[in-house]
Every structure is written in C-alpha cells, then in structure tokens.
Amino acid sequence: MIINDIEKFLAWVAERELELTYDADRHKIRIYAKHIIIGDLWLPFSLSFDPKKNEVYKVEKNWVIFLVRAGTAAVGYFEEGINTEHKVFRAYMVRKKQGKSQIKYLKTKGKSRAGSRVRLGASEKFFADINEKLSEYLDKYPVDYMAYSCSKTLWPFLFSEEGSLKKDDPRLFKVPLHIQEPGYEILLKVNELLQSVNLIPEENFLNYFSDYKDKAPQAPEEEDDW
C-alpha cells in the first residue's frame, strides 16, 4: 500500500511502540512488533531517513533505471525524478519453438548452428549496447542510485571490463517487483513507484496496518507482473 503522509505514519508506528531498523542497501525501513518482522516500508529515492531521530527529510537525488529481459530492455536517466533520457533495446534472441533465449539454449546444448550463431551475435550486441548506454549515463551525469530489474541468468552478461557498470557498485538497487515486458511506459511506472512510500506487510500481518487510515490505493507488490 502507498503511504500518503510518512511523518504521520511514523508517528502512528511510534504510538504503538513498534521497533524500526533501517536497511541502507535497500533503502527501506523494517518494522517489528515484539522482535517479529511485520512489514517493510520502502522509501522513495527523494527521501532520506535518520534512524536516530526516526525522521525523514527530502534530498535531491538522480538515478538510472534499467529493466532487462531476454531480447528486450529499457534504460533511462532521471534527474530528481524527471526522465531526461531513455532508450529501449530489442534483439532477436529467442528460439521460437523452444521459447527460450539463445544464452539459455547454449548452456544446455553446448553447440551452435547457423541460426543459433545469429541469435548469439544479436545477444552479445544487445548486452553490449545496454552496457554502453548505461556507461554513458554514469560518465555523463551525477548518479546516486541505479535501480534494476534483471534475472539472475542474464545478470552476468550485463557487465564488461570496459564499461562503467560494475556488479559490486553500492548504488545498485533491485526494483521490488517483477517486470514482465520492459518498455518506456513501464520505465515511467517503475519511476513512479520509486518515488512513493510503499508499505509491504508480511503475509501473516496483512491486517495489522488496517486501522491506519491515511493510505492511498493498493500499490503493486514485489511479485506482481508489469
């Protein structure tokens, strides 16, 4: 659920004597009741949290979003939440009969015929183009966060020694939902989510927050498809 007024929500949490911890890597507040996790409060990139004072304050941040699936990707640079540049990539990577990417196919079969070599070449160029564009953003702009959605199978192909994108970069932030088909509209929707205060209760505590009145309509949760 989207929280409209985070200050009011934090006051509500304090009234119930709930415990909070801040996860800086995921930029979220974990909420406990008697040492039991009852939910996570995902914070927008435009807010910082002071765990000592239990307060949030606005900050000016810039970020990159990249959403990658086999054969389709969308990347963009956002300056204080406003998209100033974006690029959508598409490649011929999927075997029609098997419905799997050429990378996955070669992992299981180990051999490549003419059509497979074409798809493999397209796959290599696909990831090289994504890395080149992301490197351009990182070299050109001040980037505070890099929000991504990419399956573990494709993750190793996204990096290169020459590019500026590194898998151990502390600015990397996994988008907390599943992206089915990357595109420009989805890129903007993800950006909207990253600028929202999103409360995700633990499954056994879905009703715990029901008496909190100041909340917006339900937001997409981590396993929803976009």
Automatic annotation (TrEMBL):
Pfam families linked: bVLRF1 (PF18826)
VLRF1 domain mapped to chain residues: 59-197
Protein name: VLRF1 domain-containing protein
Annotated organism of origin: Cyclobacterium marinum (strain ATCC 25205 / DSM 745 / LMG 13164 / NCIMB 1802) (Flectobacillus marinus)
